[in-house]
Amino acid sequence: MMDYGLLALLKIRVLLHDPLNKSFLLRTLGPEFSEKHRDVARNFLSIVLSGTSLARVGLGQKFEGVVDEADRIASAFDRWILKSTRWPSKTYVYYDHIHNVFSPRIHVELGDPPRDADVYEVARELSKILAVVGKFTSSIQERELLLYNTLFTLLEPIWYSKGLPPSLADTRTPTHTVFDHLYASVTMVNMLLNENLNVSGFYAMIDFPGIQKFVNAGRKVGDVWASSWLLSNLVWNIDEYFMNTYGYDVVVSPTPRLNPYALRTLLSRLLGLNDQEYELIVGLEEIIRNKDNELNNTIKNILEVYRKLYSLESVGGKGIQTLWLQPLIPATTVLLIPKIKIPRAESLETENGVAEKINGYFINAWKNIVDFVESKLISRNDVLHRTLGSVIESIRDILSTPPQGVNIAIVRIEDVYKAIKECITNKNRDICDELGLKNINLEALHHNSKIDLESLAKSLLWYILVTRSNILARIDRYGKLYNYMLRPFWTYSGGQLESVDSKLERFSVGWIPCSLCGQEPAYIVFRKDIKTPNQVTFKKDDIDEFLSIASIQNREDKDKILQSLQNLITYIFKPGEALGPYCLLKRALYISFRDNLEILSTDDVALSAVSVFLKKLGLPKILEEEKIRNIGLSKEDLEYLFTPSADVSKDVRKPFKDIYALANIYGMNYEDLNNKITKYLVNSCKESGIESKELLKNIAHVIGIPTNESSKQVVYSLLLDLTENNEIGIDSLCRFLGLRTQYAIVRGDADDIGKIMSGQRFGDIREYKEMIELIKRNSKAIGSEDIYRYLEQGYENAEEILKALGLYSLPLSPAIYQAISLSLMLTAISDYKIVRRPGEGTLIYSGGDDVTAFLPIETAIDTVTKLREEFYSSGFKKINNIPITSAIPTGRSFSIRIVNIMDVMSTEIFNAMKFLEERAKKAVWTIIVEGKPYEFSKDTLIITSSRSSEESLFPLKVSVVPIQNILNVVKETPLLLLTILSKNIPEDYRGLVGESETYMDFSSLYNFFKYVLERNVKPLKSMSSRKNVLLMLYKGLDNFKNLSLFIGNEKSTAIREYIKFLSIVRGII
Questions:
Q1: Closest CA relative to residue 833, chosen from 319, 428, 208, 304
Q2: DSSP string, 120-170
Q3: Where in the numbering of this chain does the Cas10/Cmr2 second palm domain appear (predicted)?
């Protein structure tokens, strides 16, 4: 039995076994670094623990060995590069650049070394927080583990919040930080916690299968967001059980480091919320306010650290709470579960025990979400929320079971380790094949005197676990695979098919399928009642049935409630909808979070950019009550439609923005309402007295075109000149306004991310050898100038060992895995911030590699470009301009699907994904750059529309200047069509070129294209203006000249893709 005090102290010792400024100390400690840097680490540890119950507790010699062993395993193959050369003592390299682990040629300076005073300020701040945590959690049995979890969560954020750069883990292998190494080391402890401190424990991969079908079943933004948020929180809740039992380090992926969900977990424990942590999302301020002042202030300080870390001011909202509403946790998680006996926790000795525990907590996690939704709705004062809460309560017995289970792959780490030794020590080639080491040269390994085979086995352990666990779990001698099951809605007995609950068969036809997912039987049905050709509403019988389910039919105030519901229900449900229990829960979930969500409906998304645009112009200038009344509409309704959702007071209790429902209220056809409002906005804009140049500036800003004075902004500068000379009139610019009924579904996915996460895309060992030259030029030798010879020899030895192992790049180490996982987490948070810029859309999911968002059409192209740049452009992820970890140098392909708010959302999400996978991901591009051909695959944007059969593709390789220029032209095109270009270009071009396009060379095709452009520039007052416009167009479009696209046997040109893009975009804005 290991008590929580010993477990916490062991993990704290490992987490702080190196100084946080380790590599910077080389400069001051010199040849004495080896001995003295440990003293620095001990002093830091002593200060951190000084106010806690662990301050004077010893670890013991037995567990000191665990600290050293965890350190060695975390470093893994990096140590081979160094130890194989018998590196001389008191000899070091002082180096202050970090290199990208995938592309070692790319490097950046870390920054100024932290002062000692800064380092100890971090220690004192941590100490103060831990002292308060210890004081207010003294009655909790695992209080020492909570101290460790607090330190784990805050160590890195507090360091970065002070503006301090990270240290390198080792200057001789400068591809990751000391934080990567420390967090990897403490994770490795979980493999060393059995009684004999041998390698043991379980590597568990948990996956919620069929996520696309689960998430995409919806007709509203809220349905899809709720599905995604449900998944993120179900998976994270499984993680939470093991985090609170063994420590946050047991979660391998997604990383808890700098993870807003990990902060929520910590605050929930500190505030004693237990299973009520979702209350933090809706009532954080009130919960904190009701706590003791000392705890209150401590938590406020923690929140301030994260506010600085994430720079949340730029996206508005309620700070960290907005991140808790973002689905940032993928549907797959990986845990490293120790074999350990601790108080009040069941000892997990077998994979069956682990699987049962995972399944049990998955079900508990599901029930907690259902409980939260039900209680949140019923506790509200308004009739709609309470009615919906009663409906959820009526099917509580059905909802207590999740709609499906999870797949669980569990590997016994001890048996994998034994197998690796059997492979490389006993030359068992069959075992080597099972482990994925099919090309291993066993004889070469055994004849290499530099290799200790026992140490090599440990160095390969993590690489094998990460790359082969899913396969090894299918082999009994390594582990076990547990497949999920869908929950049944029917039982078959005695030749009869019967429902699990009679509530699902109360309709005259027996049962009706859910109109959202098509999988579950419906529980509530709202049939269409066509009053007039222009007005579709609900059948009264279905409303009565809804009230009956909610136990309202027999209440005295039934008529009053019915009247309130009739006015509001259109905004929650649509005529013709039939919802099963689980899809109804999703709808109820996002309604319960309504006051906290930033975007509430597809109409919100469609209108968000034009609403921000009108706000900048001054909405009162456009909306005049008398004129609006004259066209049969209400100023209040239009004001609400065009007020940015973030500005709508939550106290007003307005229904969701819904153009279709508004048309019904006016007894008007949906298209007629659209045309009437658009015509009114355009005319009001013309009569408003707003200056043309002000309109142009705001349109450019919304689309994403910079409006500063930079010489690079050729298009905007020229259009501004034309506007000031009255060659672009107010009439053209006012056409930008309108009642938007289209929005963009965006799907993005990092290219080859599976290979990257398994270490198959690291830089070739030869690239690492080339890195030595960079180290030589920018480093300082300490102790002996011969160190560079030793370093070169180390990488030579590494290449030799890799060749014997049959590998082409360094095998993935725990520290490097930490760096990659952190990179994905930081990207996910940045994705949210990009998507939620003012006037932007709503994030449905981001895991750092793949991303789904709904965006207004005006900003979609600019946002996608920024999402691509954020994934990889400069080589490193940065916080406050401090390089934190390597960015992943691969492409990120995107699909923009432009759809109407009346389209079937689930179908269009599927279409967006299909175009991404079947077209963008199969694209191959060739371009001439500086006279040389350059080819790459994937990294592509595809743009399609539900109202067009056209598809248009563009490369996203942002590191190539001509491609950057092409993307700028694509982004500027809507503004060009609004002002100076005719929308007839596609017909003119196709009529001129026809089928001969396929056979033309680049030069001829481009000349035809230029001719078409000349014919389609709108009339301008002066010839010089026309000449300047054409020169500007030629300069931008010249980048298209030497770019070709191949998809299978199909060939296209960038010019052709641009023509197709014009066909799509000209009818949208």
A1: 319
A2: HHHHHHHHHHHHHHHHHTTTSTTHHHHHHHHHHHHHHHHHHHTTPPPPBS-
A3: 743-922
Sort 838 into a burial class: Cβ within 10 Å, 0-12 / 13-18 / 19+: middle
311-318 CB contacts, 8 Å cutoff, 24+ apart: 311/833, 311/880, 312/833, 314/833, 314/837, 315/832, 315/833, 315/836, 315/837, 316/646, 316/836, 316/838, 317/598, 317/646, 317/836, 318/284, 318/596
In angstroms, rounded to a whole number, what is the distance separating the alpha carbons of residues 911 and 949? Answer: 12
Q: What average pLDDT does the segment 580-601 reach?
A: 88
How do strand 892-900 and strand 940-945 relate by DSSP bridges? parallel
Helix (H/G/I), strand (E/B), else coil: 361: helix
Give the pLDDT confidence score for residue 802 in this predicted structure. Answer: 87
Rounded mean pLDDT of the chain?
90
Q: How far apart are the first and last CA of the chain?
A: 68
Residue 783's nearest CA partner among 32, 85, 36, 97 is: 32
Q: Which residues contact 568 (CB under 8 A, 6 or more apart)?
A: 383, 384, 655
Domain ranges of the chain: 413-472, 490-596, 602-740, 741-759+811-918
Lookup: tokens for 244:
């609170």
Q: What confidence tens digit (pLDDT) does each residue in 891-913 have?
A: 999 999 999 999 989 999 999 99
Fold assignment, 741-759+811-918: Alpha-Beta Plaits (3.30.70)
Output 1003 or 315, whichever has higher pLDDT. 1003
Closest Cα partner for 202 from 582, 446, 478?
Answer: 478
Angle, helices 293-310/279-289, rounded to nearest 10 degrees: 130
Residue 534 has pLDDT above 70, yes or no: no
Provide the token pair at 421: 């030794």
- Average pLDDT in the 999-1020 region? 90
Return the SS3 of 951: strand
How far apart, in whole angstroms, are the C-alpha atoms of residue 742 and residue 945? 10
> Residue 88: what pLDDT?
84
Q: Is cis: bond before 655, omega within 30 of 0? A: no
pTM value? 0.94
How far is CA 563 from each of CA 286, 559, 659, rounded to the nearest angstrom? 34, 6, 21
Q: Specify the residue for token string 């046997």.
A: 1049
Handedness of CA 45, 47, 49, 55 (dihedral sign): positive
Confirm if 212 and 906 have CB atoms less than 8 A apart: no
Decide if pLDDT at 292 tops 90. no
Under 8 Å CB-to-CB from 350, ≥6 apart: which residues?
A: none
Is a pLDDT exceeding 70 seen at residue 557?
no
Q: Which of 558, 590, 548, 545 is nearest to 571 (CA)?
A: 590
Instruction: Provide the b/e sequence for 134-173 (b: ≥16 CB within 10 Å).
Output: bebbeeeebbbbbbbbbbbbbbbbbbbbbebbbbbbbbbb
What is the SS3 assignment for 336?
strand
- CA pair distance 606, 824, nearest whole angstrom: 29
- Euclidean distance between CA atoms 786 and 1001, whole angstroms: 58
Alpha-carbon radius of gyration of the chain: 31
Indicate the SS3 state at residue 669: coil
pLDDT at position 141: 86
What backbone torsions phi and psi does residue 435 show, to the nearest 5 degrees? -80, 0
8-state DSSP, 348: -
Dist CA 990 CA 1008 (whole Å): 10
User: What pLDDT shows up at residue 653?
Assistant: 55
pLDDT digit string, tens, across residues 760-800: 767 678 888 889 999 999 999 998 888 899 888 888 888 88
User: What is the spatial distance between Cα 937 and Cα 917, in angstroms, rounded to a whole number?
Assistant: 13
Q: Quick one: the chain helix, strand, coil %, rounded to 5?
A: 55, 15, 30
